[in-house]
Structure formats: C-alpha cells, structure tokens
Sequence to fold (309 residues):
Amino acid sequence: MAYSIYHQLLHRDNLEQSLRQMGESLEKKGWMGIVLVLVLMLFNWGLEARKWQKLVKPLESISFLRAFSAILSGVSLSINTPNRVGEYGGRILYLKNHNKLKAIAATIVGSFSQLIITVIFGLIGMIYYLNNFAPVKENSYFAPNFWEKILFGVLLVICALTILLYFRLQIILAVFEKIPFLRKAKVFVQIIVKYSSGDLRYLLLLSGLRYIVFSAQYLILLDALGLEFWWWQGFLLNSVIYLVMAIVPTIAIAELGLRGKVSIYFLGLLSSNTAAIIAATVGIWLINLVLPAVLGSVLLLGVKIFKEK
Fold:
C-alpha cells in the first residue's frame, strides 16, 4: 500500500508544481501552522489524560501529570500492536498492582466513548460524501450508490446499538455473571457499573473535544502546506477517513500506508495536490503518534528504573 502511494505520487503530472506550492505556503504561513499543530498535540493527549484520570477514579485517584505520563507510555507500547491494544499495558503501569487488571475495563470504556464520537461524525461525513461525491454506478442491477447506502445503514444501526450499550454497561456485567467461564473475571469488569450517566456524558464530551482538536490539527497542517478547500468540507471528508481507520484493523506503526491511501481518495475530491495530502498525513502521524511514543518510551524507562530501585 505504501508503494502504491509512492507510485501514485511519483507519477502525478503536477508533482513539481505541488512541491513548489507547498514550499511557498510554508514560507508564508506554514511554520506557524506547524507550531500550532504541535501545541494542539499536547491538548489532544491532555484531553485523553483527563479521560483516563476520570476513568480510574473509582479505583484510585491519580494526578493529571501521572495520567498524562500513563497516556504517553500507552502510546509507546501501542505502536506495534493491532488497533493499539498495547495502550492498556502502558497505562496500567502507573496504577497500584491490585488495580492494574481492573483498569483495563476502564480503558475500554474510554475507547468506547471515543468510538461513538468517531462513528457519529463519520456518519455525518458519509451523508455529505454520498450526496456530493460518491461515484454513481450505471447499468447495474442496483440503484446508484446502493452498497454505500447499505453500509451507511449498517453503521447507523451499529452506532445506535453502541450508544445504547454505552449507557447500559450493566448489560456487560450481566453477561459475565451468566456465562460460567466468565464469572471468575467478573471482578475485573465491575468498575464499568460505577460510572453514572453524568460520568458517561462527561467522557463523551471529552471525546468530542478531543475529536475536534485532532481534526483541527490535520486541517491546519493541510492549510499550512497549501491545500485550498472550505474547512467544513475538509472536516466532513476527514471524518469519513477517521471512520474508515476506526473500522479497518491495522497496526499503528504500519497504518501510515492505509491512512495515506484513504486520505488521497477522500481529500483528493477537494484538491489535486496529492503531495500536500501525503505530507500532511505523514506530519500528523509523526506529531500525534511517533513523537508521543518517543516521549512515552523515555517515561517507561523511568518507570522501570524506579521499580528496580
């Protein structure tokens, strides 16, 4: 997939023009945009840290700084794991031993809230995409955009069921109680029923704010690199990109190829400047994932040394 992106980029007729446009845009306003994206990276993971702090509160109270360190350590461990499941291992290192396994369920609730926001915005983006850009299939047994609409309907049902389950987490605990081989693990998921409806709404609010922050990061970087579009169009199509990335299983360190391919497809509907799209995609990947992972690795080393002492 990465080779496909490279091949498509290399054979663009306007590659030299795109690169020149990127350079001129960076000279005019780009560097301020990059600095802003870096600052927003701290807000991005800071909001996630606040979520984590709230999620583990029924188990133990931790400071925001400790929660932020746990988040970065989780990013570091997640970079080589499918769909970033390694985040759980990094975060729980900062909790007391008897709370570590119980906190995994808390982390899943936080991921649940972020997934709901991603799907909701993704569905809104899909409505815009289907009504304005989706390819119309002629001479088919089905109506135009039939399969896209089927997919939209399936995602809408999944979203509704997910929201229902999110506000009825006791259903999950009931499943653990009724299935014999899961009963022993019930103690590790009991935390999920300790969140009130207000807590769950607050987590959704933080997830929504975080979604806006990392969406803004991408749009700012695209603008800094010279891509011209209406911000709301970029936001809506970008929401479809995030939806695709949430659905398709991938490994964080290898997701760049898929993210680039999907970004070219959807954002390419707004601009032919493929070079800027790829540059922004790589830039966001480095700023939001690789840089925090490096910082998290340093923090993990500190945790290890502390425990050895």
Summary: The chain is about 75% helix and 0% strand. The first helix runs from residue 2 to 10. The CA atoms of residues 60 and 96 lie 8 Å apart.
